[in-house]
Amino acid sequence: EPKRKAAFGSIGRRIPYRILHVINQDGESLGNMHRAEALKLMDQNDLKLVLLRENAEPPVYRLMTGQQIHEEQLKRAKKKKESPKPGMVQKELSFSSAIAKNDLETKTKQIAQWIEKKYHVKVTIRQAK
Q1: Where does the Translation initiation factor 3 N-terminal domain lie (predicted)?
Q2: CB 32 within 8 A of CB 20
Q3: Which of 14, 74, 94, 121 lies at a C-alpha separation of 20 to 30 Å from 54?
Q4: Residue 9 pLDDT more than 50?
Q5: pLDDT at residue 113, as a whole number
Q6: CA–CA distances in Å: residue 113 to residues 24, 63, 71, 89, 107
Q7: What is the mean pLDDT of the chain?
Q8: Are strands 29-34 and 19-23 parallel, antiparallel or unpaired?
Q9: Do 77 and 111 share a structural domain?
Q10: Region 66-78 average pLDDT
Q11: Does residue 8 fall inside a structural domain?
């Protein structure tokens, strides 16, 4: 079974690494510390530890509030939704507001064909001078 990437969020108290690089909630580096020290800091400040970069040496964790975690999850979800899917074709069509009727019909047919093929279509209309 392939290893799934964990969702962004608090990892609780189960930290598989002994030495961690910790960043506080303001983004300042607190340096490398032992797992027990990081957990104590987490409890003292009523924060949650979140894994940022697992493949760094040592792994990077950040202390965050629940609100910060929620905002980051929303930001990542929005970014993922906006990025085109692999294999997804995006077509773009641009025309002037002073387009001739037959040109408009031709471009409309083209857009309909792309939509049938399940392409994402972006239409830009420029204002005529």
Answers
A1: 11-78
A2: yes
A3: 74
A4: yes
A5: 92
A6: 52, 50, 39, 13, 10
A7: 83
A8: antiparallel
A9: no
A10: 87
A11: no
pTM: 0.56
Could you give the C-alpha distances from 129 to 96, 99, 118, in angstroms and in order?
Answer: 9, 12, 34
Answer yes or no: are the C-beta atoms of 22 and 63 closer than 8 Å.
Answer: yes
Q: What are the backbone angles phi and psi of residue 51, rounded to the nearest 5°?
A: -75, 125
Read off the tokens for 112. Answer: 């309909």
What is the rounded CA–CA span in Å between residue 14 and residue 36? 11
Does the residue 57 lie in any domain? yes
Token pair, residue 4, equals 């799934």
Burial (CB count <10 Å: 0-12, 13-18, 19+), residue 57: exposed
What are the backbone angles phi and psi of residue 39, rounded to the nearest 5°? -65, -40
85 falls in which pLDDT band (50, 70, 90)?
Answer: low
User: Which residues constitute the domain of residue 94?
Assistant: 90-126
